[in-house]
Each structure stands twice: as C-alpha cells, then as structure tokens.
Design brief:
EC number: 5.6.2.4
GO cellular component, one term: cytoplasm
Oligomer: single chain
Catalytic activity: Couples ATP hydrolysis with the unwinding of duplex DNA by translocating in the 3'-5' direction
Strand content: 5-15%
Radius of gyration: 30 Å
Protein name: ATP-dependent DNA helicase RecQ
Mean pLDDT: 91
GO molecular function, one term: DNA binding
Largest sheet: 7 strands, parallel
Helix content: 40-55%
Length: about 625
C-alpha cells in the first residue's frame, strides 16, 4: 500500500515523500477505519484523503464549510486530470441536479459539498445511489458545540452514516481540545476509530504577548527588526485600511484585505502579497484560510482573538518554511474589556432573535406560510441599516436561527457566471442556422469551453464581449435570450452570502428558540474567553500554555517565546549579580546599602531578591548588621 500511495503522490503532486503523519493516516483510511487527523494549518490535510481515494473504487465526498477553498481544490484536481465537482450555496436547483447526475453516472472522483447542502433531500437521495469510497470531513471541529466554530449544518453529517453505513469517515482539523476530539468521534459515530495527532508545538515559532499602549510604534519597530513578509490581523474592516495606510506612510509596502471586497480585488491583493510585491497584508480573519505562503516571518494580532483555537490557526501561518518566525499579540487593558463586551453582545435576548427573524421575512417579502427552500443573496450590512439594528448581535441571532432549523447562511464567495446547453448538438446546429444573431456567440462558446452539453461551465462575459467586439450588455442580453428560448441555462455571477429559508415563514411570536442551547453555548464561550485571558497572563512558556490547552502534556520550555527570554535574561542577571556579590563580600563585610551601591546589574528589587536568595541558601551570612561571603562555598 505504501508504494502505491507514494506512486500516486509522485504522479499527481510531484512530491518524493510524505509529510509527517500523512502516510499513517492514508494507511488507516485504506484499511477502512474511521480516522481523526489533527494536523496544523499547512500540514497537508488534503493529501490524506485525495491519495487514498484515488486508489479506491467509487467517489470520495468531501464536506467543507470553506467555499473558496473547495473551489480551489476542485480547480487544482482538474488541472491534474482528476475529475472533481463542488456543490455549495448559490447554485441553482438545475445546476445541482446536473452535478449530482454526473457523480452518480459519470467519472467524478471527488464531490465537494458545503454542509448546508445536506439539508436538501435531493442531495441526500442522490448520494444514496453513489458508490462512495470515503467521507472526508474538513474543519471537523465545526460539528462540536464545544468547539470554537460550531456550525449546525455539520450535525447533518450523521445522516451520511445512515445512507452508507459501511463507508469510513476521515475527519480533519487543525485545532481541537480533548473534549472536542471525543465529541467529533461521537457525533460522526466512529467505529473502532483511530486518532492521529501531530504535536501542537511549533519549534520555530517564537510566541510573544506584549502589553503595549503604543501599538503602532511598537508594530513599526517590530516590522523593521524582523524583516520579511507578514500578516497583521485586526478586528474590523475600517482598521484594515487605517493600519495599511499607516504602514505605507512609513515606507512599508502594505495592503488591506477583508470580506467586503469583491472577489477580483481580494484575489489581486492576495496575489500581490503571495508574490512579495506587497510585504505586509493587514486583514480581518477572512484572510488566510487555504493560503500556503512559506516565508511569512511574522503574524501580528493588534486585537485579542475570540479563542485560542482561532489564534493558534492564524499564528500558525508564520514560519511554514521551518525558519524562525514570530507570532505576536499586542493588547491593552481596554482590549480585554472589549472582548468581554463582545461576548455579552453575542448572546442577544430571545425577543431580539425573534425580531431579526421577523425582519428577514419582511426584507425578502415572504408571506406567512411561504418561503421554504428559497435562496436569496443576503447583504447583512444593508439589512441592519434598514432595520436600525447592530451587526454583531444580528450575526449571533442568525446563527441561533440556523441552529434551530429556520434558516441556513453561507459565507460570502464569488460564483462566476455559469452556462450549459439544454439541447443536443444537432438541435443546436439547426438553431444556429435559423438564428443568425446568436451564431457567433454559440460558436465562440463551443470553441472555448468543453463539456458545455453535460456540465455547467464558467463564463466571463467581458472576455466574450472582447472577442466578439461587442458590448458587455450585448453578450448578457444574448445569453439571457438563449435561456428564454430554452436553448441554454444561464446563471449570472454573484458575490454575496446565500441565505436559505429552511422552513415556511411563521409568526415570530410562535418561533421556537432553543434557550437551553443558547445558555450552554454561552457557558462554552465564557470558558474560551477565560482561556484567552489565561494565555495572556501565562508566567512560564507560551508554547506550553497552548499545548496544555489542547490537552498535550509538555514540560520542556520552548526557549524562544517572550516568557522564556525574560526568564533566561533574569537568570543571566542573577548569575552576574551573584558573582558581583561574591567579589564584593570576599573583600570584606558590608551593610546592605554599601553592597547595593557596588552592584552594577539589575534594579534595586532584583538586587534584594538575589541577596535574600543567597541568604536562604547560606551562601552569604549576616553578622552584626554586615553581610559576609560564606567561606564554605
């Protein structure tokens, strides 16, 4: 098995060897065992299901909440000649239907699914007819309510076990506490499963936590001293622009990134940073997932993250080349207080949640008793402005409405325009002869796209317009005309989150909200906030503090974090003070003031501390008010 796996790795990915744990996980999957893999961000999790799936008969179904990442993986697989498709929110019923048909009857090897699609009876029923070799669950911590990013749609994964009871699960995550590790296995119904853990210790990462009033000044000094490329995480979109402009004004090539930018702009900014045309990217937590840049020398947080899990993932984007790198967290007392305020506002009262649901019905003009199964582009900022409500508690209310099965809400992602012919080649030729105005457009689509009779293919209206030497509007009108004539299906591009009503609209006064779940989530979130505070206040070693949180026993100090450096510096000062004290007292007895005046290292408190320590150890003795060196030492 090992030789075949390695052969596939070399053939499709060009790698000569596996990374640590990859081969062990692959072998467990090939043996048909339920498997949980805990591997850090950038550890090569996708190889763990892609390589064994290529050896097994049937299709591998990959569940992931990250639509942009799914699209990238599908594109990368296709470039390697491996058939793959993705189904996520925002796709039409017809588009989903065609994709599923190809999974049942075609040669598709990988089906990527957003978890929300498992609410659909159509999707579940088609999966029943697929020969499924493996279920791969990415970001598996999302299934646990004890995790930092619980997503209700992940609870639907248990139904996959009912559909294909003999198909193994491979669950993958970068971060999970012992409680979450157990919960993942329970929720997925693991049978005789295995857990593979890569240590949470990153030997090359020098974690730093700095209580700092002048964050911007300290940030500049740090960037100049460390050098290289970096990421700076801030809490909101406004800050991304302000901090990026501050860096530019001080001569550092920088740019900003957040989810509010359109897809093309985000892609351009990301590429500029990846190719080192921009040195520093200032971003919200929307940036980084699935990005593998090896030479990141620092990751700086200017705000306190919501959880240690989120912090570990974001900080872990530094130093993937194995060279020394610096995850740095700067904070002020006001930041600690703001984190707690955000925690309180993320659990709005029940009447507020009911009111948000009522506003949603009005916003999309849905009648009572209607709306089930309808999808809408959803701009949460516009929604909050219209009804004069705060965004932060609104987002929390939407999550609780999703948990109770009223709605589902996907992430914002760019979906290009899609096109598919609905008649066969012969009928299309007859249509071209009869409809000259569509002929050149049809010929261009046939010449530049493959599989357009079987699949929905991505179209770029601007490129078509350029090649045909007509306007963008003309191309769009003709594509819409082909749809109206039922010659083809044309789905315009979108770049917004998708909101689905999973139940018919009810009067908000009769809306069921699971209050016990909300209280439980509140308790879990409170523990996560306290864990962040404990990390900020740690005394011994940052790496040990992180490993302990994730249930990993470790007693060896990392030697490079801020706490270890402080301790080493203190030890060096103590050693030098001890030598000075010995030299001074061997010359004769001295009172405490005389002795203190002769010592050149440390402040007064440190000097007194070392003197008391030497007294306790009887290396110096006090006689008649004078200190003497004990000649026995």
């Amino acid at each position: 098995m090992e030789n075949k796996s390695l052969g596939i790795l070399k053939q499709y990915w060009g790698h000569e060897t596996f990374r640590p744990l990859q081969e062990d996980i692959i072998n467990a999957v090939l043996q048909g065992r339920d498997t949980l893999a805990l591997m850090p961000t950038g550890g090569g999790k996708s190889i763990c299901f892609q390589v064994p799936a290529l050896q097994m008969a049937g299709i591998c179904i990959v569940v992931s909440p990250l639509i942009a990442l799914m699209k990238d993986q599908v594109q990368n697989l296709r470039k390697r000649g491996i058939e793959a498709v993705a189904i996520f929110s925002g796709m039409s019923h017809r588009e989903v239907d065609v994709a599923l048909d190809n999974c049942v009857y075609g040669r598709i090897k990988f089906l990527y699914l957003a978890p929300e699609r498992l609410y659909s009876d159509l999707v579940k029923e088609r999966i029943r007819y697929m020969k499924v070799s493996l279920f791969a669950i990415d970001e598996a911590h999302c299934i646990s309510q004890w995790g930092y990013d619980f997503r209700p749609a992940y609870l639907e994964l248990a139904k996959l076990r009912e559909i294909h009871p003999n198909t193994a699960f491979l669950a993958l995550t970068a971060t999970a506490t012992p409680r979450v590790v157990q919960d993942i296995q329970d929720k997925l119904g693991f049978v005789g499963g295995q857990v593979f853990r890569k240590s949470f210790r990153r030997e090359n990462l020098a974690y730093m936590v700095l209580a700092e009033e002048d964050k911007m000044g300290r940030m500049l000094r740090m960037i100049h001293k460390i050098g290289g490329a970096g990421v700076i995480y801030v809490r909101n979109r406004r800050e991304t622009q302000e901090v990026a402009q501050y860096l530019i004004n001080h001569g550092i090539p920088a740019d900003f990134y957040h989810a509010g930018l359109d897809s093309q702009t985000r892609s351009q900014k990301q590429d500029s940073w990846m190719e080192n045309r921009v040195r520093v990217i200032v971003a919200t937590n929307a940036f980084g997932m699935g990005i593998d840049k090896s030479d990141v020398r620092f990751v700086l947080h200017l705000d306190i993250p919501d959880s240690l899990e989120a912090y570990y993932q974001e900080a872990g984007r530094a130093g993937r080349d194995g060279k020394k790198a610096f995850p740095v967290l700067m904070y002020q007392q006001a930041d600690r207080e703001k984190l707690w305020e955000n925690f309180i506002s993320s659990f709005p009262p029940i009447p507020f949640i009911q009111q948000v649901y009522h506003h949603l019905g009005n916003y999309f003009q849905i009648a009572y008793g209607a709306g089930k199964g309808l999808f809408f582009d959803f701009d949460v900022v516009d929604f909050c402005k219209r009804y004069k409500i705060d965004v932060f508690p609104t987002l929390s209310a939407l999550k609780f409405l999703e948990r109770d099965g009223w709605i589902s809400l996907s992430e914002a992602v760019f979906i290009p325009s899609r096109f598919k012919f609905e008649i066969d080649y012969q009928e299309l030729y007859k249509f071209q002869v009869q409809s000259a105005k569509y002929d050149l457009l049809i010929k261009l689509i046939l010449r530049t796209t493959g599989g357009v009779f079987d699949f929905y293919v991505a179209l770029n209206e601007y490129e078509l317009a350029k090649k045909l030497k007509v306007s963008y509007d003309t191309v769009v009108n003709r594509l819409q005309g082909l749809q109206q004539l039922e010659v083809a299906s044309y789905l315009p591009k979108t770049d917004a989150p998708q909101l689905e009503f999973r139940q018919a609209r009810v009067d908000y006064k009769h809306l069921f909200i699971d209050t016990s779940f909300i209280e439980e989530r509140k308790h879990i979130k409170q523990q996560q906030i306290k864990a962040i505070y404990a990390y900020l206040d740690a005394k011994d070693c940052r790496s040990i503090a992180l490993q302990t949180y994730f249930g990993e026993k470790e007693e060896t100090f990392c030697g490079i974090c801020d706490l270890c450096l402080i301790r080493q510096h203190r030890h060096e000062i103590h050693e030098k003070l001890q030598e000075e004290i010995k030299t001074a007292l061997l010359a004769g007895g001295k009172d405490v003031k005389q002795l203190g005046d002769e010592l050149t290292f440390g402040d007064d408190d440190t000097k007194l501390h070392v003197i008391r320590l030497l007294l306790d150890q009887q290396q110096i003795i006090l006689r008649d008010g004078l200190y003497y060196w004990n000649s026995d030492f």
